[in-house]
Amino acid sequence: MKLDDVRREYLKDGLRRSQLDDDPITQLEAWLNQASQVELVDATAMTLATVDTEGQPSQRVVLLKQLDQDGLVFYTNLNSAKAMDIKHNEKVSTHFAWLPLERQVKIKGVAKKLSTTEAFKYFVSRPRDSQLAAWASNQSQPISSRQMLMTTFEKMKQKFSDGEIPLPDFWGGYRIKPTAFEFWQGGGARLHDRFVYTPSEMGWDIKRLAP
């Protein structure tokens, strides 16, 4: 593969200010629904960027589990690398890439830990194996082998075989309170359409950005 020859034209209809909702959450919901309707794989997957204590950014994909006017919610191990980063610096960025639709959305915000009640409500809705996996995995920590992980998983199965699986005290979630949104739609000749939402006294200010 010759990387500098890899390219394609973006030939969708583009994006105009008149097509955007004044509220970025409503706009994000609309694009998320459209991505789901055309059955894009993992339409709710978003890349989450955090920064560690040495100023090193890190990214990983998490799944959006709730979206409303209070923000975007995801769940994780509270001892994970991302959680440690957030403990140090609550400012995060997340990114949706719906490439078959030639769309991207970038969101800046502040991540706040969910209450135990909120985390428990979601935890009990997960498949039983997912609940067990939360207990079995010391996320982000080195392990000697996959066999060790599976052995721990089987031990958790036996430990909780008689009833409900409790919420681990090291497992929970975060709500990202957005401070800025950028909606991107691909355009021909690399003349892409970009609109950024920033807070204003009247709600949200919307500006077009050069591609």
Automatic annotation (TrEMBL):
Its cofactor is FMN. Binds 1 FMN per subunit. One of its GO terms (molecular function) is FMN binding. Pfam families: PNP_phzG_C, PNPOx_N. Residues 40-158 form the Pyridoxamine 5'-phosphate oxidase N-terminal domain. One of its GO terms (biological process) is pyridoxine biosynthetic process. Substrate binds at R7, R8, E9, Y10, K65, Y122, R126, S130, R190, L191, H192. InterPro entries: Pyridox_Oxase, Pyridox_Oxase_CS, Pyridox_Oxase_N, Pyridoxamine_oxidase_dimer_C, Split_barrel_FMN-bd. Pathway: Cofactor metabolism; pyridoxal 5'-phosphate salvage; pyridoxal 5'-phosphate from pyridoxine 5'-phosphate: step 1/1; Cofactor metabolism; pyridoxal 5'-phosphate salvage; pyridoxal 5'-phosphate from pyridoxamine 5'-phosphate: step 1/1. It catalyses: pyridoxamine 5'-phosphate + O2 + H2O = pyridoxal 5'-phosphate + H2O2 + NH4(+); pyridoxine 5'-phosphate + O2 = pyridoxal 5'-phosphate + H2O2. Transmembrane segments: none annotated. FMN binds at R60, V61, V62, L63, L64, K65, Y75, T76, K82, Q104, Q139, S140, W184, R194. Residues 171-211 form the Pyridoxine 5'-phosphate oxidase dimerisation C-terminal domain. Keywords: Flavoprotein, FMN, Oxidoreductase, Pyridoxine biosynthesis. Its EC number is 1.4.3.5. Catalyzes the oxidation of either pyridoxine 5'-phosphate (PNP) or pyridoxamine 5'-phosphate (PMP) into pyridoxal 5'-phosphate (PLP). Homodimer. Belongs to the pyridoxamine 5'-phosphate oxidase family. HAMAP family: PdxH (MF_01629). This is Pyridoxine/pyridoxamine 5'-phosphate oxidase. It comes from Aliikangiella marina.
